Amino acid sequence: MNAFDSLVQPGAEPSGNGLLGLSQRLPPSNLEAEQALLGALLANNKAYERVSEFLAAEHFADPIHGRVFHAIQRRVEAGQLADVVTLRAEFEHSGLLDEVGGPAYLTQLLTAMVGIINAGEYGRVIFDCFLRRQLVDLGEVVVNRAFGAEPELDGRMQLEAAEQALFDLATDGGSEGGMVSFEKALTAAVELAERAFSTPGGVSGLSTGLRDVDSKLGGLHPSDLLILAGRPAMGKTALAVKIGYGAAQAVRREALEKDPNAVPRGGVAIFSLEMSADQLATRILSEQSRVSGDRIRRGDISQRDFDKFVEVSRELSSIPLFIDDTPAITISALRTRCRRLMRTKGLNLIIVDYLQLMRPAAGSRPENRVQEISQITQGLKAIAKELSVPVIALSQLSRQVESREDKRPQLADLRESGSIEQDADVVMFVYRDEYYLAQKMPKELNFDNNEKYTESLDKWQKDMEQAHNKAELIISKQRHGPTGTIRLFFEGEFTRFGDLDQTHDQDQYE
C-alpha cells in the first residue's frame, strides 16, 4: 500500500472537507510549546532575539497565541517594553483575548514558562509544527486535484504544480541561512582567488572555451544568472552552444587530469525550446568537423567529409553534454530535471534557449507578460542559487533595435527588460555588423551616375572586409566585474565562434 492508498480507500469519493481519513486526526501542533514561548517572551523581551529570525505570528497553531506574539513582536521591534502590564491595556480595549478569559490569560502564560534559555527550542518546535501543517494542506490539495477538483489541470500539470508548491514551501518556509561570519566568507574569497591564481589565464570559474570571454568574466561562476541576448540571425544559439561545449570540455579535461580512466562527474544541460536535440547536435558536429550543417542535412558530403564526420562524432560522444528539447517547458519542470541530473550525473552549467519560450509554474496565473517573464527569470536565478551552478538564459530583443542607425543592442532593448535586467548578474549582447552591412549593398539604380555608385560600392566592400567573420559580445552589465566589448571570430557557414586572433585556416583542421 502506498502513501495515497493509506489516505484514500479504493472506490471512495473525495469530500469537500479535504483528505479522507484525516478528519479523525488533529493538525500537528504543540500548544504547550506556544504557551511556554510566549511566557518566556513576556518575562524577558531579550528572548525574542532567539526566535525573531524565523518565527512569525502565522506559524502559531492557536490564532490567539499568534495575536499575542504579534503584539510582542510589534512592541519589541519598536523599542518598547512588552510585558503583562503593557499588553493588558492593549488587549482590554480590543477584546482579542475574550475567548480565553480576557487579559488575565497573559498571567497564565507567565506561569507556563519553563525557562527563558529554552525560547529558541520552543520556537523551533512551533515552526516545525507549522511546516507539517503546511504539508498536510498541500497533500489535501494534491489529492483533491487528482480527484478532479481543478479539471483544467491535467496529470502532468498537477505534478508540476505540486512540486512548485513544495519548492516554495522549502524556499520561503525554510529556516536555514542567516548570518555567515566574516571569517568564513573571507576564507571562501581567498579560495576563489587561489583558484584564479593557479589556473592559466586567471579563470576562477568554469571555462567557456573562449579565452577573451574567460578573461573578461573570469569564467562562469556558481549561482550566477547570465543573459545572452540578440536579434535573430546574430548567432545567440551558436554562441551559447559554443560556451556549453567549451564548459563540457573543461569538465571532462579536469576529470581526466585527475584520473585518465575517470568518467566525468558533472556536465552541461542545454534546454533547447526552439530547436530539436538532433538539430542542436548537427550544429555541434558541423562546427567541430567543419562540414556545413546544410550539407549534412542534405547528404551533400564527400566520403572524406563523412569519415571526418564519423571521427568527430566518436570524440564528441564522450563529452558530458545533455540536451532537453521539450517545447514550452515550465520553470518547475526545468528545476526537476536539473535536480535529477545533478543527483545522477552531476551538473556544472545550465543553458536555456530561450527564456521567452518558457512558461511559468503550473497553476500560477500571471496578470501580464512582464509579470510572467519576471516569474521565469526569478525562477532561473533561484535554480542557479539552489544548485550552485551558473545559468545562461538566451533572450530575444525588441524590434526597436532595427529603427536605430547604430544597431548595437542596449539594456533597454531587452523584451520585458525590467525584470530580466534586475535579476541577471551578467547581461551580454551578441552583435554582427556584417549582417546589417550585407543588407546595405549599394544598388546602381539608386545613383545618378556610375562614379558615385562605384565610389559607394568600394566603400561598402571595404566595410564588409573589415566586418567579415567578426562578431562582438557586448557586456552591458556585470555585477562582479567590468563591462565592455569582446571581439570574436565567427564563421557563418559552420555557425562557429572562436577567439579572433587565431589563424583560421583550413589547414589547421585537416
The gist of it:
This protein has 510 residues and is of the alpha/beta class. It has helices spanning 3-7, 31-43, 63-77, 84-94, 104-112, 119-146, 155-172, 182-198, 211-217, 236-258, 277-289, 293-298, 303-316, 331-344, 369-387, 417-423, 433-438, 450-467; strands spanning 225-230, 268-272, 321-324, 349-353, 391-396, 426-431, 470-478, 484-491, 496-499.
Summarize this structure as a short list of keywords or feature phrases.
510 residues; Replicative DNA helicase; 10% strand; disordered N terminus; 9-stranded mixed β-sheet; alpha/beta
Describe the structure.
Its EC number is 5.6.2.3. Belongs to the helicase family. DnaB subfamily. Homohexamer. Residues 450-477 form a coiled coil. The structure is a single chain. The protein is α/β, with parallel strands linked by helices and 510 residues long. The protein contains 18 helices and 9 strands. A 9-stranded mixed sheet has the order 3-2-4-5-1-6-7-8-9, sandwiched between helices. The protein has helices at 3-7, 31-43, 63-77, 84-94, 104-112, 119-146, 155-172, 182-198, 211-217, 236-258, 277-289, 293-298, 303-316, 331-344, 369-387, 417-423, 433-438, 450-467; strands at 225-230, 268-272, 321-324, 349-353, 391-396, 426-431, 470-478, 484-491, 496-499. A hairpin with a 4-residue loop joins strand 8 and strand 9. Residues 1-22 and 503-510 have low confidence and may be disordered.
